[in-house]
Each structure stands twice: as structure tokens, then as C-alpha cells.
Amino acid sequence: xxxxxxxxxxxxPSVPGCFRPRSSVPSFPFCSHAxxxxxxxxxxxxxxxxxxxxxxGIEVHAQIKAGAKIFSDAPTIGGTIAPPNSAVSSIxxxxxxxxxxxxxxxxxxxxxxxxxxxxxxxLRSSFDLKHYFYCDMPQGYQITQFxxxxxxxxxxxxxLKDGANHIVRISHIQLEQDSGKLTHDLHPSNTxxxxxxxxxxLMEIISQPDIRSPEQAGLYxxxxxxxxxxxxxxxxxxxVGELRADVNVSxxxxxxxxxxxxxxxxxxxxxxxxxxxxxxxxSRQIGILESGEGRIVxxxxxxxxxxxxxxxxxxxxxxxxxxxxxxxxxxxxxxxPHFVSELQGNLPELPDASRARLMSTYGLGAYEANxxxxxxxxxxxxxxxxxxxxxxxxxWIINELFGHLKDENFSVEQSPIxxxxxxxxxDLVESKFISALAAxxxxxxxxxxxxxxxxxxxxxxxxVQIRSSDVDLDGLCMQAIxxxxxxxxxxxxxxxxxxxxxxxxxMKATKGRA
Length: 514
Fold this sequence. Notes:
Elements: E1 44-46, E2 51-63, H1 104-116, E3 120-121, E4 124-125, E5 128-131, E6 141-144, E7 151-152, E8 155-159, E9 165-177, E10 181-183, E11 192-194, E12 201-207, H2 214-231, E13 243-253, E14 263-268, H3 271-291, E15 299-304, E16 309-315, E17 325-326, E18 333-334, H4 337-345, H5 351-362, H6 366-374, H7 378-385, H8 390-408, H9 419-430, H10 436-447, H11 454-460, H12 473-483, H13 485-492, H14 498-509
Parallel strand pairs: 14-15
Antiparallel strand pairs: 1-2, 2-12, 2-13, 3-7, 4-18, 5-6, 5-17, 7-9, 8-9, 9-12, 10-11, 13-14, 15-16
């Protein structure tokens, strides 16, 4: 829906009066939560002169899935290929006399995201103008929520490799508009500007500095992106720029309670690059501090993935004066508590709940549940697992299907093998109609789009399991023993590993069908 009153959106009768301090802004009462303590188990980095700890906070900018831009009716093209400057309105161009009109779908998606992160939805928020002059922002300022964001607080729980639970607190979520895209390498002397992205709604999700290692940072970004996709508030594809991360990194001596000078790495475009950029920046800062010949300068840096280094872009020793002040064209945004309550009741099952359910209902381990949920395969798994061993189904999905999907850069939704087909293939293995090795060959054929059933492919490829009634397996075993006396002597001497060798020989003789 889109409710426009004059030049603004109002979802509840406007409340007169001045803004309250952020700490007392009215919030949705059903979302209150106790803020967890900062991490207590530091990630220690060994330096030349001593041990260090990293302190990391991440600002994630996620494009909102709302159908139109946040303050105009121009369409959002997402990751699709469109001619430059073909999805631009007069508002995006900042032509004289135009006024912003808030897209209520952007508000709805930000609220749903805040609820999913267990944040406090502020029933009263407001928009501010952040002034800076650059060619990717024609109006000369960005409309954002500096003083009173739509969501305060929240948290995201990470399950680390050792099984430990690590909480990353969310500072707040603010609505704002994206800038245009600049291209510097398509013209010998000019920079090209594409304003298709200008004005697209963003959720800026800002974490507290609770992250302590590159691995935690990668896990945080990956899990947050997955949560946004589950909620449906963003497609969150880093490959096409729908999700970008600004990473703040500082180091301090191990055990210290005083954070070091932080450096911001802007617009990192993949989870892998997030981790690599942090690794380099930690090493760079420790090297400077241990040399005693310099100090860490507060600055903005960029990450160069080809050279695996960060590069200074501009100094932040003196904060840029953005001259924030309330947007005079957008009055306060007031939310109806019933509107928020309805959105909360319509949220889908969230990833953490899905993991817990897979473990309790199907008996999966934490690793299996995490992989299935994080790859968006919960529904797929449950469809295949009906009437079958959940553990075996999980093994086939994780070890075989996901490998094929990764090779082709496919999502589970794009898999050419539907749940029924994979279930039929697993049934053939369990009934010993074909071997597990043969089933992998059938899976290869199915993934290429073959429309035959797994049974038909198995029969056509001659992969049907040979039974003892069909061939003299005892004779084949004796032939293998007689052909390899040295290996048999080792087995007879107590080396039971040789059994695998003889099984392999019989499998060769039967072309994998025994």
C-alpha cells in the first residue's frame, strides 16, 4: 500500500510537538529486549611485541525490496540490466519544484526487518538532510534518519565453528536513499553517471562494535543477508550491489578496555572481501603500532581485491560537517501500533527458529541444520525428508546437491532437480537398486536437465545393482585375492584396511554395480 497525505506519508494521526530525545522516543512495546553483554571471549592476534585484539563494527546498506524508490515512483531495477538513466524520475534528478513522497512499502519493510532482528520499532521517527556535494547525488544532500531512526536496538546471534554462541548487538536501523553509480573506466577523460540507483530505498543496519575476527564478520554479513531474504525486505545480493558493507576496524592490546582509533573501509562488495579487508587492516594497524614510528589515523579507506590491500581515500581527522537538519518537506513518521503488530504476526519462520525445529523434529546436528537453513533449503529438505531418513536426506542435499548448485552458481530455487526427483533417487539407493556411487552419476545427468526418472536413467546407463543371484560374486572375490597375493598377505596378517582395496577391485570388475 502507499498512503500519501500532501507531501508525506502518515500511518497514524500526526502528533504535534517537538522531537523527544532518542532514549525516550516511543517504541513498539512488544519488541523490547534485554541487550546482551559485549563479547567476553576475545579473538587474540599474536604480534611481534605482544598480543592484540581487533574491534569491528559493520554498517550494512541493504536495498529495500519495495517496487519503487523511496521518495519517487520510479521503479527499482535491482540486479536487472537496464539502460543507464532509464529508471529516473524528476525527483531523482532534483529538478526545481519537486518534492519527496515517502513510499510506505519501504517503511513496512524496515519495520519487518527490525522485528526480525528483535529491535524496538520507534512509533515516531523523522528524516534529516545530510548535505554533501558530489555528482552521484544531484540534490546535493541525502535524505536519511540521523537523529530519530525507525528502529533502535536488536541483535543477531552467530553460531561459531566451535559451537559457541556469539551475540552481535544492533545499534539501529535507519531509512535513507541510495546514490547514483559512477563508472570511471569506460571513457578516457570523463566519469559516467548512471542515476538508476539514485533514490533507491536503503536500510542502513548498524552494528555495535561486538565483532572480534574476520570470520565473525563474514558470518555476520552472511547471516544478516540471509535473514533479509527470508523476511523478504531485500534480495540482499552483494554480487549486484543490493547489499554493501562499510567495515570499521581498530586494534587494541589484548585485555585492554580502551578501543583504538578506528578506520572505515567503504563499500565492500562480498563476504570474502569483507574478511580479506579486515585481515589486511588488522595486520596494517598492528604493524604501525608495533613499529613505534607512527599512529593510526582516523580515515576512510577502500579495499583493492586485486592487490589485497586497503587504500586511503580521505581523512576523518576532522569530521565532515554534513549540516544535518530536519527535512522540511517530510513531517515526522508516526506508526500505528496495530500496523506494527500486524506485521509482526505475519513474519515468516525466522532462520534461528528453523534451525531449532530441524534439530528437534528431524534429529539433525547443528552443522547440518545451519547449512540447510543458511542455504535457503529448509522447505526443500522437508519435502524430500517426508517418509525418509532425515539424516540421509541431509547428507545427500549438503554433500551432493549443494556441490552441483555451487558449481553453477544456482540457488536452491533454481535447482533443476526437484524434491520428488531427489527423493526417488535416494529411494533407489536405500532399496539397493543402485549403489550410492552410481546414484552420483545419475545425479550428474539429472542436473543437466534430463527429464527421465532416476530409475529410467539408471537402467539406460547400466547402473542397476548386480545381485549375488545374477553373478558369481564369490568367484570375483577369489579372482581379486589371487591377482593380488601381496595385499592378501597384509590382510591375513591383520591389516584390515586391505578390505577396502579388495572391495574396490570387485567394484572395478562389475563397473560399480556390485
